Each structure stands twice: as C-alpha cells, then as structure tokens.
Amino acid sequence: MSGGGARTLGDLVDECADRLVISCDKCDRVGSYALAGLVIDHGPMCRLPDLLAYLSRNCPKRVGQGLDRCGAVFRFDVE
After folding, report:
1. Is 27 inside any structural domain?
2. Using CA of residue 33, residue 37, residue 39, residue 42, what is the dihedral sign?
3. pLDDT at 78 > cutoff 80
4. Total count of domains within the chain
5. Report field, pTM of the whole predicted structure over 0.90
6. What is the residue range of 19's domain?
7. For residue 57, is it within any domain?
8. How many CB atoms lie within 10 A of CB 33?
9. Which tens digit of pLDDT belongs to each residue from 30-55?
10. What is the three-class DSSP state of 37?
C-alpha cells in the first residue's frame, strides 16, 4: 500500500488485475473499468477511496442521509 495506508491503482497493477468492477447494492448499478485506462487517466498513485468517490460522483444518493447513502464498492471477487 503506497497511498498513505489506502490501496492505489498501482497496487492493483502489481497484483495483475486487468479490470476494476464497482457495484452498488442499493441501486443495482455495476461498472467495469479497464485498469490500464484508469492508470492512464488518474495515475498509479491514485488512492482507491478517491477513485471510488470520483467514479460514483453522479450517483443521486452520493450525498444521501444515513442508510440511504450511495452503496458503491469495489468488487475484487469477480474474474
């Protein structure tokens, strides 16, 4: 972990991942992103929490209250 305790895009490259999947169990949105493209656009030192906030920025629940907040998460269990 090289991003101040948070995993970075560069960490994922080192782990040989080629896609990054984001899903939300509250609105059923799912997005799959090519890791190489994310590294080009955001850099290898981009922290995953910052990237998640950026990629889910257009979610209407992003600034929701309590349990009604955006539920976007990275899914590392997909192939």
Report:
1. yes
2. negative
3. no
4. 1
5. no
6. 9-75
7. yes
8. 14
9. 889 999 999 999 999 999 999 998 98
10. helix
